[in-house]
Design brief:
The chain is an alpha/beta fold and about 450 residues long. The chain contains 17 helices and 10 strands. The protein is about 55% helix and about 5% strand. The strands form 4 sheets. It has a 4-stranded mixed β-sheet with strand order 5-6-7-8, covered by helices on one side. Helix 3 runs antiparallel to helix 6 and helix 6 packs antiparallel against helix 9.
Length: about 450
């Protein structure tokens, strides 16, 4: 280093260190269409989730299904359109010939454009997932977040962006991006909701399971292999120097698709937590709720407290209200449905405890095995219903019967008389009568049913 004197001051003549060139990916990350694509994905999920919040908030499985369905049916077309628009950028700018003589290979240029945009799309989706999880967490009824589904969706969305880039470079038309989105939306919708007769349904990114089911361990891997293999094959076939290598990812995609199609519905099974239930054994009958909704047990027990309190000491009752997939055992009855959320349960709370108690009572004395119970049983059944857990609409029903024809008014008088007689019984007499009544709830004729 040399020193030079100027006006009595020593100054350095060492040459300035050259500024390091910025990586091309940095420019794509902070400028261009990528941030707008991520914002569009976030906005799409925000609108979709906000307009149907009552149908998923508070239930982790419903939250997973809502995010999964939105990602497959709406997110994938949006990712394809974003990638397609980005892929046609150089053509719109008129810089194709300039890039053609650059030092970078076509594959490197494509990836430098596609990967930052894929990261922005994944970022928008990630923010949407985190917000949905926070909205569910504060009122969750049990269970825990499902992490595998968002990871799978993120990989599928990234594949859509990359595949869209290839389409945008091949199709010289400004309307290619919106038409690609519309075509993808229609195709995925038809594939996903075409019914069980279509063997290609498992290839759809929209789930075909239920809230009680989870995929087998390899299903997300196969879905990523199917979609990612198609995207990688398209990229290599379009931009690689040795385009024959595109056969490798396409072969992987074919193998994954074959596995998904041949497995079909067997790629989903009932989750371990959905096969368990938690119970309150202090009531008659016992009250059990699915382990997915264990935090609802106190609410359900409180809602049914009037019903179970009046049944204390009564014999011939089912052992418990159960809440497991499939039909109940012979000595059990099914608890009124807690799912899908948005009906009986809204944001972690029972929407109408009185109506829920009435539905639980109907499962005890509804004579569901009878196609047409004998008309004379109507007054007896109605009296038991009114005593144990009347419908919130019972008064309105009575008023409607009172304003109809003579037959309806006679039926109403019979119901009112039966209610009065059951209420007038002593405690022990009523327990004995109810014990005899519940021994005949599968009878469709009045022969063995105790009269009132």
């Amino acid at each position: 280093m040399t020193l030079a004197t100027e006006n009595g001051r020593e100054t350095s003549t060492h040459p300035a260190r050259p500024r390091r060139p910025r990586h091309p990916l940095r420019a794509e990350l902070v400028r261009g269409f990528g941030p707008w694509a991520g914002a569009a994905v976030l906005l799409m999920f925000a609108v979709t989730l906000a307009t149907s919040a009552e149908q998923w908030q508070g239930d982790w499985a419903e939250t997973r299904e809502k995010l999964h369905a939105a990602a497959g049916l709406l997110g994938v077309p949006l990712a394809l359109a974003a990638g397609c628009w980005q892929g046609g950028r150089e053509r719109r700018r008129g810089t194709e010939e300039l890039w053609a003589v650059s030092a970078r290979s076509p594959l490197a240029r494509l990836l430098a454009s596609a990967l930052p945009q894929a990261l922005w799309v994944i970022a928008g989706y990630t923010v949407a997932v985190v917000l949905a999880w926070l909205a569910t967490w504060y009122c969750a009824t049990g269970d825990s977040p499902y992490v595998i589904a968002p990871l799978t969706d993120a990989a599928v969305l990234a594949s859509g962006v990359v595949a869209g880039q290839v389409v945008g470079r091949l199709v010289a038309w400004r309307l290619a991006a919106p038409l690609l989105a519309v075509g993808a939306y229609v195709s995925i919708g038809l594939l996903s909701y075409s019914g069980g007769d279509n063997p290609l349904v498992p290839l759809s990114p929209v789930p075909d399971g239920t809230t009680d089911s989870v995929p087998v361990w390899w299903q997300p891997v196969a879905m990523v292999g199917w979609t990612g293999g198609l995207a990688a094959g398209a990229v290599l076939a379009h931009a690689a120097r040795r385009r024959g290598f595109a056969v490798l990812p396409l072969a992987a995609a074919t193998a994954a698709a074959t596995l998904l199609v041949q497995t079909g519905d067997d790629a989903w099974h009932t989750g371990a937590i959905a096969r368990r239930q938690v119970c309150d054994t202090s009531t008659t009958p016992q009250i059990c709720v699915n382990a997915r909704h264990e935090r609802l047990l106190p609410q359900v027990t409180d809602a049914l407290s009037g019903l179970t309190g009046r049944l204390e000491g009564v014999r011939n009752l089912p052992v418990r209200f159960e809440d497991l997939p499939g039909p109940p055992a012979r000595d059990e009855v099914e608890l009124p449905m807690l799912t899908p959320v948005g009906w009986s349960v809204v944001r972690g709370e029972l929407a109408d405890p009185r109506e829920y108690a009435w539905a639980a009572g109907m499962s005890l004395y509804g004579r569901i095995e009878c196609e047409e119970p004998h008309p004379s049983l109507d007054a007896v059944d109605n009296a038991v219903e009114y005593y144990l857990a009347p419908s919130p609409m019972e008064r309105r029903f009575d008023e409607q019967y009172a304003t109809r024809g003579e037959a309806e008014r006679a039926e109403l008088r019979a119901r009112l008389d039966a209610r009065a007689r059951l209420k007038a019984m002593g405690e022990q007499e009523r327990r004995d009568w109810l014990s005899a009544y519940f021994a005949t709830t599968d009878e469709c004729a009045p022969g063995r049913v105790p009269a009132l």
